[in-house]
Amino acid sequence: MSGAAVRRAAADLLVLTLEKRRTLDEAMAASEPFGALDGSDRGFARAIASAALRELGRIDLALQPLLTRPLQAVTPAVRALLRTGAVQLWRLGTPEHAAVSETVEAAKAWPEARSGGKFINAVLRRAAASPPDLDALPATAIWPAWLQAAFTDSLGPDGAEALARAQLAEPPLFLTARTDPAAVAAMTGGELMPSGSVRVGSGQVETLPGYETGDWWVQDEAAALPVRLLAGSPSPTAGSPSQSPGSPPVTAIDLCAAPGGKTLQLAAAGLAVTALDRSKPRLKRLEENLSRTGLSAKIIAADAETWRPAAPADLVLLDAPCSALGTLRRHPEGAWTRRAEDIARFPDVQSRLLEAAHAMVRSGGTLVYCVCTPLRAEGADVVDGAVAAGLYRRLPIRPDEVPGFEGCLTPAGDVLSLPQDAAEHDAFFISRLTPM
After folding, report:
1. Does residue 270 sit in the same domain as residue 417?
2. Which residue segment(s) compose the domain that 256 sits in?
3. Whole-angstrom Cα distance, residue 266 to residue 272?
4. Which of 69, 126, 260, 332 could join 53 in a cystine, given CB atoms 3.0 to 4.6 angstroms apart?
């Protein structure tokens, strides 16, 4: 396959993500130019698009002085090719002749960009001749202005800057073991983390030892904490909930459960699990994950705001729908596919779900509320509202319960897993509660 075809595919991925507001995974599934590639060509096209998305705001800032008109006034196809060409030159170390000429050739073969070939050539020649110091720009410049303001408001300038710096690095792959984290680390050549997760760097999931036999599943290190704080699960420092022989099983409800990583954890901890989600297609993925791992749970397709169990459960996990802005390290396109107005709708939904969950957990039981976003409006503010309304009181999380995350505890006893030191996990908010 020609180098021009690779550049065309990478640019097509950018058009689908940034103009059509699709995730990168959805774009890769939908893009015909990308689908026509295979092997290393496909990998390089993905790498170009991913690198451009990871640092898009900075790249756009550096491109603008090279243009005689606003970048947003350029047609989407030409704009995508400029971005892919620039990131090759400035971040990927692609030789100038390849980055420029093959990108221009991609324009010539793309009807939507054909008229911009000379323009692309001129801009990328200037980009190669005078490469900018992207690292001199604030790390937060990788995001649109509204998101910079939102993160700064919730986390402060230093917290927002740390979150942005974390996004600039490719995230590793973390695994959660079904039973024995140390054995999973040994079989995969991974590193057993203090939290009990296994870090394996990167790689093709399906080719790792233990995948076919269901010994583990992919789950971010921070994403594995809520269940460990709710019920315990295989880790170097925590066991499953104590249960006397012959006693009734400990019951757990996983709300908004699909695709099921936390359901798998609850089932692996020996609990009687009910997994609830509105989306039948996403529940299908949960069923597949349960089958692969040999674990079991009762699956229900229903709306958590209106559904109620026959009897309140001992444990409830509410992994509420959210902006997912804590996962931008893995899905950097999310900063550009979302709008401020999209984010504003989540706190009301989260508050209603937390109120509904009150009827699902027995007196003296435990509920964990979590969201994969660091925005205060979706995390602490939602919990503070439910506590102020007299629905719950907090069960503060102790440092010994979160090995490796001790520095992520808030004064209120919640967890906010912001990047710190060499941490490589997503940003999660987690609060442990009991009903009043």
Report:
1. yes
2. 239-435
3. 8
4. 332
In order of 21, 148, 359, the CA distances from 158 in angstroms are 29, 12, 39
Please give the pLDDT value at position 134: 96
Mean pLDDT of 360-366: 97
End-of-domain residue from the set 86, 107, 137: 137
At 2, the pLDDT band (50, 70, 90 cuts) reads confident
The tens digit of pLDDT for each residue in 313-336 reads: 999 999 999 999 999 999 999 999
Q: Report pTM.
A: 0.92
Residue 358: closest CA among 397, 381, 389 = 389
Q: Which two tokens stand for residue 39?
A: 């092997």
Task: Tell me which residue of 4, 78, 81 sits closest to 49, measured CA to CA.
Answer: 81
Tokens (6 digits) for 317 = 């996990």
Q: ∠ CA(108), CA(113), CA(114), 5° rounding?
A: 35
Report how far residue 353's alpha carbon sits from residue 302's, in angstroms, rounded to the nearest whole number. Answer: 13
**Cα separation of 23 and 331, whole Å?**
8
Using an 8 Å Cβ cutoff, are 372 and 219 in contact?
Answer: no
* The pLDDT of residue 422: 65
Q: How far is it, in rounded angstroms, from Cα 86 to Cα 80?
A: 10
Kindly state whether residues 128 and 243 are assigned to the same domain.
Answer: no
From residue 285, give the alpha-carbon distance in Å to each of 151, 208, 289, 290, 347: 32, 20, 6, 9, 27
Q: Which residues pair with 198 in a beta bridge?
A: 175, 192
Q: Find the CATH number of the domain harbouring 246.
A: 3.40.50.150
